[in-house]
Design brief:
Blueprint (H helix, E strand, L loop, with lengths): L8 H28 L11 H47 L8
Helix pairs in contact: 1-2
Length: 102
């Protein structure tokens, strides 16, 4: 019987890469929203106030989505670091010690 837990570093690295890619794709979608945010409906009459509020809401949504894409991408980067640390620890654990205890 074994106790503890194990992490498959290769699988973790693969999923971390997917997470970073997902963050980049999300950021590209946010960029498209950013380009359209604040676009006027071409009416300066009755809907002027609606246009103003719509532009403010759009800018808030874009800022929020942008922050989310940053977090997704940063999480992928953090998972990559974890996978590298696991590999380094596994390598260090299998290396023979100099002056091993007798």
């Amino acid at each position: 019987m074994s106790s503890g837990f194990g992490i498959a570093a290769d699988t973790l690295a693969q999923q971390a890469s997917r997470m970073r890619i997902h963050g980049e794709e999300y950021d590209a979608a946010v960029q498209r929203l950013r380009e359209r945010a604040g676009a006027s409906w071409g009416d300066d009459g009755l809907f002027a106030i609606v246009n103003q509020v719509w532009a403010q809401c759009s800018q808030t949504i874009v800022a929020t989505k942008s922050a989310l894409s940053d977090e997704v991408r940063d999480t992928g980067g953090g998972l990559t670091t974890v996978a590298r640390n696991i590999r380094d620890a596994d390598t260090a654990a299998t290396m023979p010690e100099d002056g091993a205890w007798v």
